[in-house]
Amino acid sequence: MSRRFSSLVGVLTVTLLLAAVASAAAQSQTAHATTGCAVGAGKGYGYSYLTSLTVHRTSCATGRTVVKHHGHLGGWSCTKKRLDTSPVQYDDRETCHSGARQVVWTFTQNT
User: Fold this and answer.
1) Do residue 23 and residue 42 come from a single domain?
2) What is the rounded (10 degree) CA torsion for 28, 31, 33, 38?
3) Same domain for 41 and 61?
4) Number of separate domains in the chain
5) What is the pLDDT of residues 32-91, one digit of tens each?
6) Which string of DSSP letters, residue by residue, matches 40-82?
């Protein structure tokens, strides 16, 4: 094997390794992005209407589980904020954390 060929193989190897590292970093950032999750008609979650659901560093399936249990799951800590109120209903936003994972949802509850 010539010295020139050996050098070319080395450069190609380094280039491929750098491309693989860049690809892995891009996938890692995507996996940690905040994601909006589908909630269908918003029924069946224990609220009058679930209006939005977003997750960060977790899956939509986990987010739906947290919502269905109103955040009362081991290891999850939650806070609520009243967004709007009227004589017949109120709107809240609930935010739950478990380590770096986060689930945020808004809902309307008829009174």
Assistant:
1) no
2) 170
3) yes
4) 2
5) 688 999 998 899 999 999 999 999 999 999 999 999 999 999 999 999 999 999 999 999
6) TTS-SSSSSEEEEEEEESS-HHHHHHHHHTTT-STT-EEEEEE
